[in-house]
Amino acid sequence: MSSESTGILFIVFEVIQSIVPLVIFFTLFQILYLKLPLSQLIKLYTGLAFTTFGMILFLHGINSGFLPAGTEIGEFFGGSDNKNFLIPIGFVLGLLATFAEPSVRVLSYQVEESSSGYINSNLMLYTLSFAVAALVAVGMAKIIYRIPFLYIVIPAYLFALILLWFCDKEFVGIAFDAGAVATGPMAVSFLMSLAVGVATAYEGADPVADGFGLIAIIALAPIIFVLLLGVYMRFNGGRENVQ
Amino acid sequence: MMGDIRETFLEVTQAIIPLTLTIVLLMLVFVGTSLPELISFLIATVLTVVGMTFFLTGVKLSMLPIGEAIGADLPKHNSMAFIALVVFLLSFLTTVAEPNVKVLSNMVDSALQGSLDTNLLVVSIAFGVGFLMAISILRIVYGVSIRYLFTAGYSIILVLSFFVLTDYLAISFDAGSVTTGAMIVPVLMGLGIGIASVLQNRSELDGFGLIGLATMGPIMSLMLLGVLSS
Fold first, then answer.
1. ipTM of the complex
2. Of A155, A171, B7, B131, which is most buried by a Cβ count within 10 Å?
């Protein structure tokens, strides 16, 4: 109980400490250069207060909910003989989390617009969710079979670098930005603590070398996926559909 | 503003429900979590949703317009050094405040059991983002193709990854993607759109790619930290 209250006090302190320098910087810039009108300033500072308050609640919620839950579930499977269950579980989690993530929808519309309707946003949403799900499963397999991170990440980025040069120009920026959409804050906290939990309880595994890397692997899914769409758009007559 | 809050609340709830249901199912079927524990998990989830709603509404009201206002102001100063410095500072400070970075540094701290100073970790991540953002904004100003930057950046990363300790390797890459968080993205987007909107002959599309470019920053800076500390 007492650890709970020191916990939230610590978070309040930590959040305020991290946001104050940003507020000071903005205020200085406002006084020296921007000189925005008062009405707009009030709105901005209200927004900053919301941000701070929300971040405190969010971090406290995560620390007492998703993080311990992820660690507990991870340690359970990591210490059991049914580690293989983690692969389908990872797949389902990835599928659901991506499908439900609002920023994935935003990305899908963006791609539909950039291709002037050539790439249907719904089709994109389904296939992208599937791609992320597959990579979460890969990430789980990486922990269970202790596949070195280099073996996954080097070929994947080399592939992305090659695609980059064959891809429609407009898609390059969208693709690399898209890495962000699959890693929403809630999914990240849960999956990260799950992975570290598995690697901690798994005898013979290294919690650091085997536990981390999952988020980076997941972020690769939308990058490679959108790059592939860009290559397709460039070589399959997509151009005449784009003004 | 009430409309903003309601809309954000619906988005957050929609994103969290499938995840929460799966977790509860896993807890009940496999882990055998007790009822009080389950209830406290659900209470924490409600806190998370409320917190996220306020946080995202606040970010929309403050960080995006701040990024845009500063971005649109920068080209007026006609000094590349000034632009680079301000972009560096703003991205650095935003990264320090980013909740995703806190979650990562806490995870790293508990996994490494305190053998790496978390302040050093956060500062390195923020330095990487700031540095890459300064370069990326100059890219928009000078009109350099985004392909060259990505190719150069990831080539450096791929080479470095053979020299980095395995402990740092995975953390470096995770740090890259964690940085694409809810606080950083609107500021970077705002900066890019702001700058591109005042420059002539630049389409708004030049604002895209900034987040992807910024991702390379912390990967590189943490790898360097790993190489230096070994």
1. 0.92
2. A171
